[in-house]
């Protein structure tokens, strides 16, 4: 038990350090991009389109890579697969740590796009699989919430540091911490692949065994991934569990909305209210503090009485309300007020991952989480193709009608679709038996 808890603490430190290195540069990257591409202006269509193109390309890469990385982690271990994305993520940060001129920015843009096609989301995906290897079924939603809380804590610390550091120092610190994260992970994190599969009645990715259906009919074959999963493998996985396929639909629309926010919100706030690096950092800091407290303390209390299905629906509904507030913001204080809703919004991602995790066996967590991450990445390909042009159009003088936040309102509609779909899996049963074993610990 003590050994397992120590391993989890090393995982949390690894996630915190890598998250800190990623989050500390977010408040500054918009200003760096604008300065490199359109110096002296508050509105730059080129920056919006390039950011959207980068996001789409990253989404394409991760949609292909996440199922592969998840599957390989089931074969070769979580720690081995964590090394690659954590190491690659250092390179683009080091470039902007040297200089942020136009030429350096384009070098960063190219390498960031290439490395993020492998790195984006993979650390979180593998961390979730690592937790699922060590946490019992009934405690998994709480554990995923705590992991999200650790990420939110890294977000708070990174954003707070960005608030007081210069832009150049921000990227230098990010480079150092990302290297420290790799060293720490390699030195202290232990492998987590379980020695045996236990407590599973109908895993969605069973290793080639027959599963007898409840009605006594002939057994059906569960899908088996090869080391490089194909599109057919993913489709078979989705068909094998109704709850998993419904969770995948929710993941798609939720990620479509998140991708839209990433590609649109900062440029919308900069054009609408002239926000800069410090104001972006303030917004992120408020949201991060609220999210950390909620995920570490509030969510574990609510999981047992409400269940992860209801928490998912509540989080998506409040996220929809948050997007509506942003879209109709009439003053620069409204975005700050809207961040208070983060206390409930943050329930959605860990609850969704918990629902997906419960449909998989002990040696299949990498495949399940990789599949959900791949579907989310697919949404990230589509999101900027829709929302970046929409944002640029309605922030320009050529808008068909005056509604600067129209793209954000469309994001709210997308979240409403995810909410409606989530209601269908609110009481979805787990296909794995909740059973304490020597491989799992309670949190």
TrEMBL record:
<feature type="transmembrane region" description="Helical">
    <location>
        <begin position="143"/>
        <end position="165"/>
    </location>
</feature>
<keyword id="KW-0813">Transport</keyword>
<dbReference type="InterPro" id="IPR001958">
    <property type="entry name" value="Tet-R_TetA/multi-R_MdtG-like"/>
</dbReference>
<keyword id="KW-1133">Transmembrane helix</keyword>
<feature type="transmembrane region" description="Helical">
    <location>
        <begin position="401"/>
        <end position="425"/>
    </location>
</feature>
<feature type="transmembrane region" description="Helical">
    <location>
        <begin position="46"/>
        <end position="68"/>
    </location>
</feature>
<dbReference type="InterPro" id="IPR020846">
    <property type="entry name" value="MFS_dom"/>
</dbReference>
<feature type="transmembrane region" description="Helical">
    <location>
        <begin position="336"/>
        <end position="356"/>
    </location>
</feature>
<feature type="transmembrane region" description="Helical">
    <location>
        <begin position="247"/>
        <end position="268"/>
    </location>
</feature>
<dbReference type="GO" id="GO:0022857">
    <property type="term" value="F:transmembrane transporter activity"/>
</dbReference>
<feature type="transmembrane region" description="Helical">
    <location>
        <begin position="109"/>
        <end position="131"/>
    </location>
</feature>
<protein>
    <submittedName>
        <fullName>Hippocampus abundant transcript-like protein 1 isoform X1</fullName>
    </submittedName>
</protein>
<keyword id="KW-0812">Transmembrane</keyword>
<dbReference type="InterPro" id="IPR036259">
    <property type="entry name" value="MFS_trans_sf"/>
</dbReference>
<dbReference type="Pfam" id="PF07690">
    <property type="entry name" value="MFS_1"/>
</dbReference>
<feature type="transmembrane region" description="Helical">
    <location>
        <begin position="377"/>
        <end position="395"/>
    </location>
</feature>
<dbReference type="GO" id="GO:0016020">
    <property type="term" value="C:membrane"/>
</dbReference>
<feature type="transmembrane region" description="Helical">
    <location>
        <begin position="171"/>
        <end position="189"/>
    </location>
</feature>
<feature type="transmembrane region" description="Helical">
    <location>
        <begin position="280"/>
        <end position="299"/>
    </location>
</feature>
<feature type="domain" description="Major facilitator superfamily (MFS) profile">
    <location>
        <begin position="7"/>
        <end position="430"/>
    </location>
</feature>
<keyword id="KW-0472">Membrane</keyword>
<dbReference type="InterPro" id="IPR011701">
    <property type="entry name" value="MFS"/>
</dbReference>
<feature type="transmembrane region" description="Helical">
    <location>
        <begin position="7"/>
        <end position="26"/>
    </location>
</feature>
<feature type="transmembrane region" description="Helical">
    <location>
        <begin position="311"/>
        <end position="330"/>
    </location>
</feature>
<feature type="transmembrane region" description="Helical">
    <location>
        <begin position="80"/>
        <end position="97"/>
    </location>
</feature>
């Amino acid at each position: 038990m003590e050994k397992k808890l120590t391993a989890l603490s090393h995982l949390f430190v690894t996630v915190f350090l890598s998250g800190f290195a990623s989050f500390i540069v977010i408040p500054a990257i918009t200003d760096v991009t604008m300065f490199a591409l359109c110096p002296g202006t508050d509105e730059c269509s080129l920056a919006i389109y390039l950011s959207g193109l980068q996001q789409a390309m990253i989404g394409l890469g991760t949609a292909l890579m996440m199922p592969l990385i998840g599957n390989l982690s089931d074969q070769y271990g979580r720690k081995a697969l964590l090394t690659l994305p954590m190491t690659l993520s250092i390179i683009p940060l080091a470039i902007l740590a040297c200089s942020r001129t136009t030429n350096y920015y384009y070098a960063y843009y190219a390498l960031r796009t290439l490395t993020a096609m492998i790195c984006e989301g993979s650390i979180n995906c593998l961390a979730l699989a690592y937790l699922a290897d060590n946490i019992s079924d009934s405690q998994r939603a709480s554990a995923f919430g705590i992991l999200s809380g650790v990420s939110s804590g890294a977000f708070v610390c990174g954003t707070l540091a960005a608030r007081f550091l210069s832009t150049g120092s921000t990227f230098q610190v990010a480079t150092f911490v990302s290297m420290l994260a790799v060293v720490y992970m390699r030195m202290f994190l232990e492998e987590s692949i379980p020695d045996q599969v236990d407590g599973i009645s109908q895993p969605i990715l069973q290793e080639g065994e027959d599963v007898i259906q409840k009605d006594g009919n002939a057994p059906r074959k569960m899908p088996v991934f090869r080391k490089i999963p194909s599109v057919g493998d993913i489709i078979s996985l989705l068909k094998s569990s109704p709850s998993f396929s419904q969770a995948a639909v929710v993941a798609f629309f939720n990620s479509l909305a998140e991708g839209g926010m990433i590609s649109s919100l900062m440029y919308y706030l900069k054009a609408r209210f002239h926000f800069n690096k410090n104001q972006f950092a303030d917004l992120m800091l408020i949201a991060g503090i609220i999210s950390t407290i909620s995920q570490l303390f509030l969510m574990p209390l609510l999981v047992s009485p409400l269940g992860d299905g209801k928490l998912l629906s509540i989080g998506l509904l409040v996220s929809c309300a948050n997007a509506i507030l942003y879209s109709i913001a009439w003053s620069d204080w409204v975005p700050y007020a809207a961040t208070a809703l983060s206390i409930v919004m943050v329930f959605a991602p860990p609850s969704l991952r918990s629902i997906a995790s419960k449909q998989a066996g002990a040696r299949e967590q990498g495949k399940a989480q990789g599949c959900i991450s791949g579907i989310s990445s697919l949404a990230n390909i589509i999101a900027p193709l829709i929302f970046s042009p929409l944002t640029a159009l309605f922030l320009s003088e050529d808008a068909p009608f005056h509604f600067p936040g129209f793209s954000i309102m469309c994001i709210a509609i997308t979240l409403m679709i995810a909410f409606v779909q989530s209601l269908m899996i609110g009481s979805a049963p787990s296909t794995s038996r909740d059973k304490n074993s020597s491989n799992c610990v309670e949190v």
